[in-house]
Amino acid sequence: MRAFDAVGLRLSFTAGAEALNVSQSAVSRHIISLEELIGRKLFDRSGARLALTPEGEALLPVVSASFDRIEARMNSICRADSSSRPIRIHVPPSLLQHVVLPMIRDFHAEHADIKIDVSSSHVTGLPSNIIDMAIVFDRPNVDDRVTDLLWMVRVAPACSPQTAARHKGQSLETFLADNNLLHVTLDGEPRGLFWSLYGRQTGITIDADRGIAFDTLSLAATYAMSADGVVLADIDMFADELADGRLVMPYDAIIEDGFGYYLKLRPEDLSDPAISLFRSWLINRFVERTTHRPRAIANSAAQWLDDGDAPADNA
What we know:
By secondary structure, the chain is of the alpha/beta class. It is 44% helix and 17% strand. It has helices spanning 2-10, 13-20, 24-38, 54-79, 93-110, 161-166, 172-177, 193-202, 217-226, 239-244, 273-291, 296-302; strands spanning 43-44, 51-52, 87-90, 116-119, 133-138, 146-158, 181-184, 212-214, 230-234, 255-265. The strands form 2 sheets. An 8-stranded mixed β-sheet has the order 4-3-5-10-6-9-7-8. A two-stranded antiparallel sheet has the order 1-2. The longest helix has 26 residues, at 54-79. The N and C termini lie far apart (56 Å).
């Protein structure tokens, strides 16, 4: 397992052997024995560069996390200080920027003795790096993690006030056809995934692939606010921008697209008082946020529909 961990993290038998201070042949023999034991290949050795097989990709994070937890626990026992290791949490970039950073700031102000290491990357589901807990953007699924739903994503077309004003009086379908569609891309998914889902649920014909694509929702929304185009905005994430008018929702046409934000951690980690406290604190803060949404979100659509411009079938 240690040989697999060393080689898998570096994707090199030579580098893995050097990290363990053993010969390359010894590392190779250990990995072959492991592959024979489980009856699956863990590495694809056919290309110019060593690569993990799907089975290897599934096993590596578990093995690495296990060694890391063993080492951390032994160190804490030696130091008689279980609070010395930081809590490692991964958060998607847009959610981190708009929602979670202030929460972490407030938690740290109340619990300055608990250290937190924050990482972020554009990934759907669990990240590959070693973490204690993660907020993931994904469809509902079942795995071996403790999973808490933080919120189901609700989206609506949003744009700058100037863009909304230029197209006031149009139907939603015409409005979308006349503006650039701003996309958020997901690995392994079609470019126009979210606009396709939106068109399907609202019954609107949308050329879902046209427009400009970004790798985070934050970038797409910033572009919409500062330039042109229409973004499918998470109205809970961008509650402040909708409330103060930097981003407007010209049509009362909100849907749930099937994705949500979930807090995930290993069941055994609930025995760690710091992790358990941080989990409960985060859940409560998300409940507060979704319970006390600014009224201006609802009014964002109303202010653009006061003349009865949009047809009822677009609501």
